[in-house]
Each structure stands twice: as structure tokens, then as C-alpha cells.
Amino acid sequence: MVTTRLYRAGKLVKTDFPVSEISDYLTETDATVWADFTSPTADDLASIEEELNLHNLAVEDAVHEHQRPKLDRYDTHLFLAAYAVSLDSVTKELSKVEVKAFVTERAVVTVHPESFDITTVTQRWDSNPDLASNGASFLLWGLLDVIVDGHFNTVQDLDAEIETYEDLLFDGKNHGLEIQRNSFELRKNLVLLRRAVLPMREVVNTLMRRDIELMRHDMAPYFQDVYDHVLRATEWTESLRDLVATILDTNLSIQGNRMNLIMKKVTSWAAIIAVPTAITGFFGQNLRFIGFATAWGTWLSIGLILATSLTLYVSFKRRDWL
Q: Where does the chain cross the membrane (predicted)?
């Protein structure tokens, strides 16, 4: 599926025209063209490759998946590869969608699978019509702004998830296995997010360089804003990785302290139980002893058991062993 747009002097004047007409419109000095391909093959991109004189290596990268986020520079165009990410609110799984773009002086071609909602990008463009006069720079900014905002929102969602596990650590209940399992999932999501976010610093920073002639000077503040969001998302992701590691360490410490407390209580009760065992064993010797075969001897043994056990219980309680 192919979607197209034509801007003239910063105004949207035509949509959904054939790809074969793109080269005709690009002969106009005030025209900017956008074409969007959903899950294309190499044959699908052959027409646009000829229309915009795209490098065959860039077209090959656009068709093949699992590219690293990057910005490649060719003689007549730029090739962008990036990942849009989101966190499922129910399953808490992180999803990544590969988005690619060819950028020329007056044209932008985006390539993505069906799972990427391109309408969020077109809405970003339509909500900033005053910037449309900047041509391809404006279109590229809108695409990057949507992708980076997705990174930032995902980091916020993961941060909220981590806060819930922080509360579970100290609610007085045993959530050891739950925290360990969920912390592992969080670390896995953060690793995937880091692979998408970290390289974007280099991508946006390259676009801000003055030797990139395809970028309009008026768009520099907007790309700077995107770069600031990239830095914040990157730093936040790194801090969350450290925080998850701290949660795991804290959970292990709490489990160790709880085990020590249990062992302390078990040992204290064992000591208390050992006293009557010793006394009854003593009075049960097969020989005559004080109070043997008398009623007061029985009460003496019971009294010794109660007095000694109560003394040990009070002593352990004062030491917080029980």
C-alpha cells in the first residue's frame, strides 16, 4: 500500500497520486513530496528508486529487517533507520517496529510494516502547518518527533512499573518470586529499549550538523528539541537499568533478613522445648531421686518446666528473638 502527499509552498495541495508522478512534481522548485510504503518488497521500491535515484544499498537496507538505528549519507539522499517502541499495558511486553526513510532535498519516502501507525506522523504534520514551508526537513522532523516521543512515553511507563515493585518490597508480604520474575522482564524490556534509544543520539546529532545541506536552518531548534528528548530518554533508560538492579539486590537482602529472622525464631523455640525435655528426662531416670514416686515430686518437675520455659521466653522476647 502506498500513500502520497504533495506540498506546494508549504501547503498541502494533493494526496494519493501515483508514484510515477513524483519526478514530475519535483521539477517544481516549491514542491515537496512524501510517499509512504507499507511492507514493500524490492520490486515495490523499484519505481521510487528510479524516480529519486536512490542508492541500491539503501533500498536493500529498507527491504531487509533488523537494521541498527542509523543515518547513512549518500550523494543525493539520506537513509534513516529507527525503531518505534511501545509498552503493552496488559501483557507488559515491549514491542519494536522498524521504520525507515529516504530523505532528499524535496522528498521523503517512509517504509514501515503495518504495525506502525503512520497517521500519528501525518497528524503531527497537520498540527504544525506553519513549519511545512521547510519542505523535507519538516517531514523528517515530524517522523523523528513521533518516534522519539514514543521512546520517552515508553520510558515513563517502565518507570511507573518499577515504582509498583518498589512498593511491593516493603508492604510486609512475601513477593520474592513475583518481584524476581517481573524484574527480569523489566530488565529485558530495558535492554530492548536501550538498543532502540541509544543510537538515536548519533542519528539526530548528525542531522544537526551544518554540513548536512538537506536540512533547513529554520528547523534547527526543532531538531534540537528532539535531541534533548533523545538525551533524556537515554539517561532515563540507563538510570532505570540501575534501579532494577537495585530492586533485585534489595529483594535478595530482604529475603535473607527474613530467613535469618525465621531461623532465629525456630532456634529460640527449640531452646524452650529443650528445657522440659531435659527436665522430664532427668526425672525419668531409672533410679530413686528427690520426690521419687511422690505427688510433690510431680508438681516440682512441672514447676521447673514452667518456670524455666517462661524465663527463657521472656529473655528471648526482650532480645527480639521471638
A: 266-284, 296-316
The predicted model scores a pTM of: 0.78
Instruction: Please list, residue by residue across 51-76, b when 16 or more beta carbons sit within 10 angstroms of its beta carbon and e when fewer do.
Output: bbebbeebbebbbeeebebbbeeeee
Residue-level pLDDT at 308: 81
Q: How far apart are CA 105 and CA 214, in angstroms?
A: 5
- Say which DSSP state 86 is in: E
Domain housing 289:
262-318
Q: What is the pLDDT of residues 119-166, one digit of tens each?
A: 999 999 999 999 999 999 999 999 999 999 999 999 999 988 888 877
**Pairing mode, strands 31-38 and 107-112:** parallel
CB atoms within 10 A of CB 88: 10
Is 291 strand, coil or helix? coil
pLDDT tens for each residue of 66-106: 889 999 999 889 999 999 999 988 888 899 999 999 999 89
Give the least confident one: 43-52, 100-109, 186-195, 250-259.
250-259
Residues 141 and 266 in one domain: no
Rounded CA separation 250/243 (Å): 10
Q: 196 and 309 in one domain? A: no
Of 219, 254, 289, the position where a domain reaches its end is 254
Q: CA 230 to CA 236: how far, in whole Å?
A: 10
Q: Give me the mean pLDDT over the 274-288 stretch.
A: 69
Q: What are phi and psi of 99, to 5 degrees?
A: -125, 130
CATH of the domain at 165: 3.30.460.20
Mean pLDDT on 205-222? 83
Q: Are residues 187 and 51 in the same domain?
A: yes
The reply to whether 289 and 248 lie within a common domain is no
User: In this structure, are 91 and 18 located in the same domain?
Assistant: yes
